[in-house]
Amino acid sequence: MRGILRSTAIGLAALVAAAACGGGAAPAASAAPAATAAAKPKFELATYMYALQTKGKIKIGTREDNVPFGLKNPASGKYEGFDIDIARELAKGIFGKTEDVDKFIEWVPVVSATRIPTLDENKADFVIATFTINEERKKQIDFSDVYFFTGQKILVKKTNTDITSLATLSGKTVCTATGSTSEKNIRSGNPQARPLLLDTYAPCLLALQQGTADAVSTDETILFGLVKQDPNTKIVGAYFSDEPYGIGVKKNKADRQGFVEYLNVELKAMIADGRWTAAYKKWITPVSGDEKKAPK
């Protein structure tokens, strides 16, 4: 990657020996234990990664209730999920390998409608939150390469036999997140559907359970998480959209020098060395039943 200098951890070992001899005494020796220090990766001074190292903190926008991608565990208070594991690896690429990279991370909760404002207002250095890349958004912010790929489907109660596709949502109340691509896909794909717009998908599931919504529609992988929460629901229909997820960054080339390029290099490295696959197997496979080695 042009302009970015990468370094590996440098092992430093020191051995000091002192010997004293006299008066018939046996030689005495003392040795300091070997010391190994993991150095932080090195970046050029003008890069955004160097600025983050200097601050000692990176602010990452993500979701708090989006199983299996991003969840703030109510018991431990820790963030967990596929997006969270990817975010932690990206932070390690800046601050170095550490047992607790969270000490360098400030997690910033976002919902669909607040992802771009969170970047514009400098509340987060990047947002990783099932963030679909599209042309309209690319006019407002920058994106990394695709790190996950899915498509939109529909969730209904297991007893529902009327809703089987986007076309059958006519006259039905379908819940989705405000400001999401899912909302736009429903409106454009079936203008006769009645969108119920909420901030996140957890209340959408509740609306389905209580009968105030006939269906929930969003990316299939998010729906997998809802099915896991309520096995009395099912996913129906074929994909009616392509949803390539990217990591969002504020559109400011001078201020964010080298940052998108850094994210792309790190994502490629995660896919190549198996870290991406490990995160997929840990978080996505239990709800999807498949395994992958790359986003698509």
Note the topology:
Elements: H1 48-55, E1 58-62, E2 65-66, E3 70-72, E4 79-80, H2 82-95, E5 105-109, H3 115-120, E6 126-127, H4 135-138, E7 141-143, E8 148-150, E9 152-157, E10 173-177, H5 181-189, E11 194-198, H6 201-210, E12 215-219, H7 220-229, E13 233-236, E14 243-245, E15 248-250, H8 259-273, H9 275-283, H10 285-288
Parallel strand pairs: 1-5, 1-6, 10-11, 10-12
Antiparallel strand pairs: 2-3, 3-4, 7-15, 8-14, 9-12, 9-13
Structure in words:
- The protein has 10 helices and 15 strands.
- With 296 residues, the chain is of the alpha/beta class.
- It has a 5-stranded mixed β-sheet, with helices on both faces.
- Helix 5 (181-189) links the parallel strand 10 (173-177) and strand 11 (194-198).
- The radius of gyration is 24 Å and the shape is globular.
- The chain starts with 47 loop residues before the first helix and ends in an 8-residue tail after the last helix.
- The model is unreliable at 1-37 (pLDDT under 50).
TL;DR?
The protein is an alpha/beta fold and 296 residues long. It contains ten helices and 15 strands.
Distance between the termini: 23 Å
Number of strands: 15
How big a fraction of the residues is strand?
A: 15-25%
Q: What is the chains' assembly state? A: single chain
Order of the strands making up the biggest sheet: 11-10-12-9-13
Helix fraction bin? 25-40%
Note the total helix count.
Answer: 10
Characterize the main sheet: 5 strands, mixed
Q: Quote the average pLDDT.
A: 88
**Nearest-angstrom radius of gyration?**
24 Å
Q: What low-confidence regions span 5 or more consecutive residues with pLDDT below 50?
A: 1-37
Structural class computed from helices and strand pairing: alpha/beta
The backbone outline, from C-alpha atoms, is: globular
Order of SSEs, N→C? Answer: HEEEEHEHEHEEEEHEHEHEEEHHH
